[in-house]
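Appendix B, record 7
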Amino acid sequence: MSEKKRLGFWEIWNMSFGFLGIQFGFALQLGNTSRIFETLGAEVDKLAIYTIAAPATGLLVQPIIGYLSDRTWHPKLGRRRPYFLIGALLATLSLFVLPNSPSLYIAIGMLWVMDTAFNVSMEPFRAFVGDKLPGDQRTAGYAMQSFFIGIGAVVASALPYVMTNWFNVSNVAEPGVVPDSVKWSFYLGALAFILAVGWTVISSREYPPDNMEEFKKMRKETSGVWYAVADIFKGLAHMPRTMVELAVVQFFSWFALFAMWIYTTPTVARNVFHATDAGTKEFQDGGDWVGLSFSVYNGVAALVAFALPVLAKWTNRKTTHLICLVLGGIGLIAVHYTTDRYMLWVAMIGVGFAWASILAMPYAILVGSLPEKRLGYYVGVFNFFIVIPQLVAAGILGFILQNWFSSDPAYALLIGGASFFVAALLCLVITDRDRPSKQISL
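Structure tokens (predicted):
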């Protein structure tokens, strides 16, 4: 690979700007999917199963798109940008369609399409930093992505509340119809998605392969989805020990996050706004307030991200992660018990600490344990341990609530808080080292 030139601030800004749009879409999905499904008649104990699209598509799509984009070259769009653009077009369409779904099952189908589109755009953005930036600028590149993740999540999560309270857009509708406040939030999210990703596509360039003939030969010899899938699963048997230890911590961390994303809206609607009927104004107000609450934890995470390196220097990385996960567990349990809307924001401060650390510390620990030549490969495999716990949560949380807790969604948050505590405890067994560790077979 020829030497990469250093990029200026605005060039790094431009190449990362698309993440603002992607996070708009994700934040709207996380904050409003349960609300839309309940409006269309979903039972609360089946919400986890209905929203299984997000983790399932991440498991299937991200490794395959990453593999294919490594082997793509378009004379005008380059390697990663074709996938940015394809994903953005599909996401924009689905963001318009989902809140207008005429039935629950069409909405579920559109969620699959939408989440697939998000993953098609998002995965190549992670590789884009490595493609474009020299080693001493990659931290700045990922930090810029994190900045746009935080900003996009804060604004998008607050949109339904803003539409209702600042622009007098109706927050109620006929039974089985999603309110205009949510619809217009999704429309704005669709516009933000295509414009932000489009700006990165037109304002950035990519390095071509050094040897095009050799690149074409490699692509021909290693092409095919089945080859990619086989290669990904092959690496699972040879993971470094630190990666295995982190995988268990990730399992309980993301199990807790999935419980929060799916069950906070029905919990807040019932416990704070005293509404169980998704067709009432009180229920929709609860959904708006959850959006604001999610803005709080994302805003806290954006600020805490700057403090994590300092805390890690005072202690160490795994202790920093342990502390943040404990605060997240306290926050989720507080949501279970609170009946005051403003206390929800206090609870979300703890969640913000956990979220900031989950986005940073596992990767900081992981990368130091990986052989450099296999870094990208194993980081891709590591995505499995984000997806699998969400699939497990989707499969069992509804059953647990229905059979043990009278379908009360608040208990999902209690379970999530306990899961954060287990993850924190497991941090104690992590081997944090900055050289390749012994491999173990599963």
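Remarks on this record: Residues 333 and 414 are 5 Å apart (CA to CA). The chain has a mean pLDDT of 83.
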